[in-house]
What does this fold into?
Amino acid sequence: MYSREIEALLQKKGIVPGDTVRVVSNRKSFEGVLLPRPEFGDQDALVIKLKNGYNIGLELKRGSKIERLQREKESFAFPRVKLEKKEGLPDVAIVSTGGTIESKVDYVTGAVHMLVEPEEMLAQVPEILDVANFKVVSPMRIASEDMTYKNWQEIARAVAKALSDSHGVMVTHGTDTMHYTAAALSFMLEGVNGPVVLTGAQRSVDRGSSDAFMNLLCSAHMAAKGNVAEVGICMHANASDSYCNFMRGTKVRKLHTTRRDAFRSVNGRPIARVDTHGNIEYMDESRKRRSEGGRMRVVPGYEPRVALLKFYPNSDPEIIDFYIDRGYKGIIIEGTGMGHVAVAPTDGKLSWLGHIKRAVESGMVVGMTSQCLNGRVNANVYRNLRLISGTGAVYCEDMLPEVALVKLGWLLGNHKRTEAANLLAKNIAGEITERTEIDWD
Ligand code: GLU
It folds into this structure.
C-alpha cells in the first residue's frame, strides 16, 4: 500500500496499479504504468514503469499531478485473429494447453500471465494463416508444472479427435514439462497416424527475443505437411533463428532453463529440421503418415502411483520403503553411470540392495535408468550391477528417466504387473533404440 494520502488521491481519480498514467512531479512529466508499491519501498513515492522498461519512484508533492491515460485492461489487450477458411490449405488443429507461449508479461507484478484466447497467440504470427486452416481447441490453460496424468489423458483425447479430420495437430504447451507430455502422448496415442507437434516458448510473445513466432511457424509447417506419423517436440534448434528441430517425443529433454534451443534430442537424432518457409529435411527414420488415416486408438490408462527416485552418494534408501508402504506400484531409479546404486557402503544402512529387493518382492516394478542421460544402462558389466539386476530390477536400456517413469505409469495402467515389467525394457514408441548413436560435437 502507498501512504494514506496517495491511496486517497488514487481512489478519487479511480486509478489502480496497472493503469497507464501521466505524472507531473518536480515540473517534469513522466508516462508509464503505475506499479504497486514494492513491499519495502518508500510509501510516499509512486512507482512507475517507464516505456523503456525502467521503474522510477516519483514523489507526489504540492503541485504534482497524476492522470490516467489508459485503463489496466486496455493496456493488456492483444489483437486476435479471426480464423477464416482459405481454399487449398491443409487443415491443422491446435490443442492449446497454456504455458509461456500463451502468455505475456503482466507489468503490474512483472510476472507472466495467460493471454485471454489462443487466437491472440496466432495474431502474433500473421504469416501462419497462409500455412494452414486452423481450428483451435483449448482443453486447459495452465502452466505445465501443474499438469497431471489427467491432463495428459485429456490432451490425448483432444489430439485423437482433432487428428481425425486434420493433416496434423499442434499442441501448444508450457516448456517445463513438455517432454513428459510428449512421452505420455507417444504411449497413449497407439498407431498415431499423422504429425503431432508439441511446441512452446521460452520467452513470451511480447519480448523482442521471443522464440514463440518461429516455433509456432515451424510447427505449423510440420503439422500441415510433415510426412510423419509421430509425436514430437518442435523448437529452436540453435541460438540463431535459422530453423527448428522436430524431435521424437520419447527421446527429447529440456536441457536449459532459459535458452531458446533448450530442447535437445538425447540418444537419438531429431526426426527432421524445419524452417519458417516450410522446408523440411528428414534426418532420421520415422513412421510415415498414412493418407488413408490408419487405425489410431487412444490408450489412456495410467497408474499414478509410480515414483522417480534419484540415487546420490549418501542417499537414504528408506525412501523406497516409504513408497512401498504408501501402496506404490512402481519406481524408476535414476542411478549413476551404467545404473548403479550403493550396494556395499561402509555404513551398511546406506545400501539400496535390500530395499530394492523388498520393493520387487512386494509386487512393485522397479526400473533402472541413468542420471548420465546419454548412453545406456547395462547390468552385465560390473558385479555390483549384477547384484542390483539380480533383485529383479529392470534395466531400461537407453530410455530417459522421465520417459521410463511415464511409460511405467502407462504400462501399469493398462497391463498386469508381470507384463508391465516385461514391456518396460521393450521398445513401444521409439523410447528404446537398439544401438545408441550419440553426436558429441
Ligand atoms: N513454467 C511454465 C510452464 O512450463 C512456463 C515455462 C514455459 O512455458 O516456458 O508452463
